[in-house]
Amino acid sequence: MNVLLVVQLVLVGLLAGEEFIVRWGVQPAMATLPDEVHLRTRIALVKSLKVVVPILMVPAVLASVAVLVLSGADDGLGWRIAAMVALVVFVLASFLGTVPINIRVND
After folding, report:
1. What's the rounded Cα separation, in Å, for the pair 56 and 61?
2. CA separation for the pair 15, 107 (Å, rounded)
3. Residues 87, 60: contact at Cβ < 8 Å?
4. The pLDDT of residue 103
5. pLDDT, mean of residues 9-38
6. HEC letters along the chain
7. Average of pLDDT values for 1-25?
8. What is the pLDDT of residue 68?
9. Alpha carbons 60 and 57: distance in angstroms, whole number
10. Which residues contact 42 (CB under 8 A, 6 or more apart)?
11. Rounded to an integer, what distance in angstroms lies between the CA atom of residue 69 and that of residue 54?
12. Alpha-carbon torsion, ordered 45, 24, 79, 98, to 10 deg
């Protein structure tokens, strides 16, 4: 179980770190670029992240579900449920919000 917890923490941490750096590092820097350069940069970013994010997201969700199921009713169950809900909301927001936009940008 400890190995699963470490794997889950690493995957979710990498996913959160990627989202954090794009939101607070990349996007503000891109906002200062001229429109044409901004658009080309955004397209390049979408092309690379459309590979990286699913590679992190799917195993992160699966590992989180596994941790939630295998840990049972141990201490911290409420925190694990809250974390799973937050992860599901993030995944839904991504697939319903940013993914369609990124598909259009990519095309």
Report:
1. 9
2. 25
3. yes
4. 78
5. 93
6. CHHHHHHHHHHHHHHHHHHHHHHHHHHHHHHCCCHHHHHHHHHHHHHHHHHHHHHHHHHHHHHHHHHHHHHCCCCCHHHHHHHHHHHHHHHHHHHHHHHHHHHHHHC
7. 93
8. 92
9. 5
10. 30, 105
11. 22
12. -40
- Checking if the pLDDT of 57 tops 90, the result is yes
- Joined tokens for residue 103: 């598909």
Q: Identity (one letter) of the amino acid at 75?
A: D
Confidence of residue 26 (pLDDT cuts 50, 70, 90): very high
Structure token digits, residue 37: 């350069």
From CA 12, how far away is CA 62, in angstroms rounded?
11
The encoded tokens of residue 28 equal 């503000």
Token pair of 89 as six digits: 């909301």
